[in-house]
Design goal:
By secondary structure, the protein is α/β, with parallel strands linked by helices. It is built from 10 helices and 13 strands. A hairpin with a 7-residue loop joins strand 1 and strand 2. Helix 1 packs across helix 8 and helix 3 packs parallel to helix 4. The longest helix is centred in the first third of the chain and has 20 residues. It is globular. The mean pLDDT is 94.
Length: 336
């Protein structure tokens, strides 16, 4: 029986859209990257977020070790391991690079200079085992690489991945529900599960007209895709603000849609969106990670575990309810 595991994404507390697919002798890891926004509202990632990131990095290391094939849909830092990773990203040099695995990646001619350097560093390790995608519907075993497609509103090219064995999965990468051709791909494949991100409205909340248009396009595409699949998992960019989560909640009333956290049996925990609340309830110096990273992470591990447990009691996923939950469970003495 196929296992489909969403490893790290926004509803699980980090940035990314990593996915592990396993069936019999097939083990595929898609977009094994992770990040935390280095600054939001002038704040670096809070230690509670960093704990979530550290746990997910360990899972990605394990899955990289067991995977036969790793697929990089594009070379953004929240989707690939990095040669120059900051403390909140996955380092290329922390991974097990055995000789039995291969890496599929975009061709050099589609990348900017920063992305080319990232790919060259991977090539230094994998050499001939690094396979660059050629043309549309590039096939390796049970998986196909489709595209490239636009990265939502930007021109950055990204690839979609379909894995077809007993259960067909389509991973649409960072197309943001804004690319009509992805809908046509879903119509053609009719996958059992679609894993997609949603529009990055958190970046445009100052422009309500643009947000309204993005959500209109996203709704049209999501409602069509939902008709071609048994399940659509929507996550990543759209969950970097409460407005995005509320929008998905409204759409899911009509279709079989869920977050990655819910698919994995957890309550969504939008730590990237709720960073200010974490600093309010658990005050700490904004540059904490530059001095005592490991010590601080260990200190906050139990608090993170408690928050995950307490979050199951949230009846409405939003920052206001999250704040009230933390105030309920953490006295001013405990916060210190």
């Amino acid at each position: 029986m196929k296992r489909v595991i969403i490893v790290g994404t926004e509803s699980l507390g980090v940035r990314g859209l990593s996915c592990y697919i396993e069936e019999k002798d097939v083990r595929i890891l898609i977009d094994p990257g992770i990040a935390l926004g280095f600054t939001r509202w002038g704040l670096h990632p809070h230690p509670v977020q960093a704990v979530a990131g550290a746990l997910i990095r360990e899972k990605l290391k394990e899955m990289w070790s067991s995977a036969d094939c790793i697929v990089l849909t594009h070379m953004h830092g929240d989707h690939v391991p990095l040669y120059n990773a900051n403390p909140f990203q996955l380092s290329l040099y922390d991974l097990n690079h055995d000789e039995n695995k291969k890496v599929l990646a975009p061709p050099m001619n589609l990348l900017n200079m920063k992305e080319k350097i990232r790919l060259r560093k991977i090539h230094e390790i994998y050499r001939e085992r690094l396979i660059t995608v050629k043309g549309n519907d590039f096939k390796v075993g049970p998986l196909k690489i489709h595209g490239p497609y636009p990265h939502g509103l930007s021109r950055t090219p990204v690839y979609a991945v379909s894995v077809s064995t007993n259960l067909q999965v389509l991973h649409t990468s960072d197309t943001g529900l804004l690319v009509n051709d992805i809908v046509e791909l879903a119509k053609e494949l009719k996958p059992d599960i679609i894993i997609t991100d949603g529009p990055p409205i958190y970046r445009y909340l100052h422009d309500r007209k643009l947000v309204k248009e993005m959500l209109r396009r996203a709704y049209n595409n999501l409602s069509r895709m939902a008709k071609y699949s048994n399940m659509v998992i929507v996550d990543h960019h759209v969950y970097r603000c409460d407005d995005g989560y509320k929008w998905v909640e409204n759409v899911r009333k009509e279709y079989n849609i869920m977050s990655a956290a819910e698919y994995m049996g957890r309550k969504p925990l939008l730590l990237e969106a709720w960073r200010r609340t974490l600093y309010t309830v658990f005050p700490i110096n904004n540059d904490w990670f530059r001095r005592d990273y490991k010590v601080t992470i260990e200190k906050f591990r139990n608090i993170y575990d408690e928050i995950v447990k307490y979050s199951n009691k949230i009846n409405e996923v939003c920052e206001e309810k999250f704040l009230l939950l933390l105030i309920q469970h953490y006295s001013s003495t405990k916060m210190k």
